[in-house]
Amino acid sequence: MDSRDEQPGAAAGTGRTLDRRAELSEFLRSRRARLKPEDVGLPDFGRHRRVPGLRREELAQLAGVSVAYYTRLEQGNGKNVSAEVLGSIARALRLTDAEQAHLTHLAKPKAHKKKPAARQQQVRPALRQLLDTMDGVPAYVVGRRAEILAWNRMAAALFGDWAQLPPGERNWARLVFLCPEYRDLFVDWEQKAIDIVCALRMDAGCYPDDPRLSALVGELSVKSEEFRRLWATHDVKEKSHGVKHLHHPLVGALALNFESFRLTDGSDQSLITYHAEPASPSADSLRLLSSWGTDATLAVPSV
């Protein structure tokens, strides 16, 4: 089997970095807006609310901080906020683990010795060898900015021949939002799009100084109304497993279990695998794809 390992290059573009203060402000506003007083045990006296969700003073009361303190934080000033206060605010906002991690990254960013744009994302040789040995199992490695870094033959048969694309276009976000073929491939395209945007939001929290990520967000915002809508929600989450329903042009309907294994080597990479339930029609279809070999590889048009 073949696996590919090429780095997205200048095609990804360059641009200004994301505004961390604005990201923090908008994230907190969006999380506050989704809560109602009754959701958090506060009385609602039926007063007219100019904006949806909790008021700042209500959120500050729940978190045990002053209104002025919380207001400064929501205005993007998280420089001196403590982990304890962030935890209190996260609990008051009913944040998930992923959302709390995102809040912490925005409010108290870690210093990086090198900007992520200056570092090439490399896939370890042993990991590429592992991909090649996973016969009959579509698998690939994804890195920061939803970049597809390496894959095996079955992944190409299932998702398309990414080797035909320039390195800068081997990106899940660009494929899902800009390539019509992927709208047909994913039965629940909207959910796949949501997952991609949520992952990009997580990256934005960890690396707000990444100009490539900013350029990608800018490009997609201009070219895709759906991306603009989903990006504006400020939703973040991580999906480690689940089921994807596909409609492959050669074998038809597929229901595949996916598993996402985040590498612990600090590379910000994940190994994604897909498999079918034993003795299921989807398992038969995967075997058929495998038997066809490279003849089953989908052609992916340039985006």
Quick structural overview:
With 303 residues, the protein is of the alpha+beta class. 43% of the residues lie in helices and 11% in strands. The protein is elongated and about 65 Å long.
Would you kindly provide a written description of the structure presented here, covering whatever features stand out?
The protein has 303 residues and is α+β, with helices and mostly antiparallel strands. 43% of the residues lie in helices and 11% in strands. The chain is built from 13 helices and five strands. It has helices at residues 20-33, 56-63, 67-74, 83-92, 97-107, 125-133, 153-159, 172-178, 180-185, 189-206, 211-223, 225-231, 281-292; strands spanning 139-142, 148-151, 241-248, 252-262, 270-275. The chain has a five-stranded antiparallel β-sheet. Strand 1 and strand 2 (148-151) form a beta hairpin. Helix 11 (211-223) packs across helix 12 (225-231). The longest helix has 18 residues, at 189-206. The chain is elongated, with a radius of gyration of 21 Å. The model is unreliable at 1-14 (pLDDT under 50).
Element layout with pairings:
Blueprint: H1 20-33, H2 56-63, H3 67-74, H4 83-92, H5 97-107, H6 125-133, E1 139-142, E2 148-151, H7 153-159, H8 172-178, H9 180-185, H10 189-206, H11 211-223, H12 225-231, E3 241-248, E4 252-262, E5 270-275, H13 281-292
Antiparallel strand pairs: 1-2, 1-5, 3-4, 4-5
**How helix-rich are the residues, as a percent range?**
40-55%
Q: Give the helix tally.
A: 13
- Supply Rg: 21 Å
Low-confidence stretches: 1-14
Q: Strand order within the widest sheet?
A: 2-1-5-4-3
Helix vs. strand class: alpha+beta
Overall geometry: elongated
Distance between the termini: 26 Å
**Average pLDDT across residues?**
85
**Topology, number of strands:** 5
Strand content: 5-15%
Question: What is the H-and-E element order?
Answer: HHHHHHEEHHHHHHEEEH
Which sheet architecture does the biggest sheet show? 5 strands, antiparallel
